[in-house]
């Protein structure tokens, strides 16, 4: 069995994304792919994205809720990169994707740099300038969303596009109590509160800062941080309308 190179894996996954095709898990062909190497694949894919003109605008956390971890069979949170090409302009329908799924998330915009290690939820929240509701559309490059932790890390945690809602508030409310109703075509399909995200989305932000520090990196001022799906993700069929309604953070809608 041939060992893959980091550069080759990054190229293959990005090409699958560009072509809108899915494939088997990388670990089936590269059993030696561990989490650390998977982050190197992710970083190489970011380098390729930047070299084609995309701008780095933040990070996303994934698998920070039990609902998501249980569904995907992966029991650890993951981090991935966000670029400006992933922002879904308001009113645009989804671009063609492989098998899009939508998930509601609490989103932070950072007012100052946040550098681990040792960041707590309380100190993390001091770096936040605004809190939003958002919908992330995930689109794994692996068939049937079947992957291990290392697979999805290499695949930039299934990133495709996301939309941030129109209501941004200063931090201060108890985000563990912030509720969200997830609707498809007007019917409620799921609900959760911010407590689903590691007890509080501030914990997810602290985890992001501390994990970045392990890689010699920090979260930069102005960055967007998606804290991870609060509920399980729902498939977005062509023509479907998915809405996330938050208690204090307004509503966000995406049409398939
Ligand atoms: C991995 C990405 C997970 C989240 O918010 O949990 C994610 C996946 O479920 O495909 O973005
Ligand atoms: Mg997500």
From TrEMBL:
The keyword Glycosyltransferase does not apply. GO terms for molecular function: 2-oxopent-4-enoate hydratase activity; 4-oxalocrotonate decarboxylase activity. PANTHER family: 2-KETO-4-PENTENOATE HYDRATASE (PTHR30143:SF0), ACID HYDRATASE (PTHR30143). It comes from the Bacteria. Gene3D superfamilies: Fumarylacetoacetase-like, C-terminal domain. Residues 99-253 form the Fumarylacetoacetase-like C-terminal domain. InterPro entries: Fumarylacetoacetase-like_C, Fumarylacetoacetase_C_sf, Hydratase-Decarb/MhpD_sf. Keywords: Lyase. Pfam families: FAA_hydrolase. Its EC number is 4.1.1.77. GO terms for cellular component: cytoplasm. This is 2-oxo-3-hexenedioate decarboxylase. The keyword Lyase applies. It comes from Amycolatopsis endophytica. Signal peptide: none annotated.
């Amino acid at each position: 069995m041939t060992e893959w190179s980091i550069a080759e894996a990054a190229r293959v996954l990005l090409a699958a994304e560009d072509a809108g095709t899915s494939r088997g898990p990388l670990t089936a062909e590269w059993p030696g792919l561990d989490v650390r190497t998977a982050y190197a694949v992710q970083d190489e894919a970011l380098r390729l994205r930047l070299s084609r003109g995309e701008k780095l605008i933040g990070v996303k956390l994934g698998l920070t809720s039990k609902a998501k971890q249980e569904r995907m069979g992966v029991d650890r949170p993951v981090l991935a990169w966000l670029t400006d090409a992933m922002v879904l302009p308001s009113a645009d329908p989804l671009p063609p994707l492989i098998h899009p799924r939508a998930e509601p998330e609490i989103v932070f915009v950072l007012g100052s740099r946040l550098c681990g290690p040792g960041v707590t939820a309380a100190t993390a929240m001091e770096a936040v300038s605004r809190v939003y509701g958002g919908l992330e559309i995930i689109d794994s490059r692996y068939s049937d969303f079947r992957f291990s932790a290392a697979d999805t890390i290499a695949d930039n945690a299934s990133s495709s596009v996301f939309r941030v809602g129109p209501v941004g508030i200063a931090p201060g409310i108890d985000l563990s109590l912030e509720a969200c109703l997830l609707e498809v075509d007007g019917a409620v399909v799921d609900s959760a509160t911010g407590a689903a995200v590691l007890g509080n989305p501030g914990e997810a932000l602290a985890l992001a800062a501390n994990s970045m520090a392990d890689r010699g990196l920090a979260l930069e001022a102005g960055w967007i941080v998606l804290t991870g799906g609060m509920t399980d993700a729902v498939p977005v069929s062509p023509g479907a309308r998915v809405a996330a309604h938050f208690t204090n953070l307004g509503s966000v809608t995406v049409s398939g």
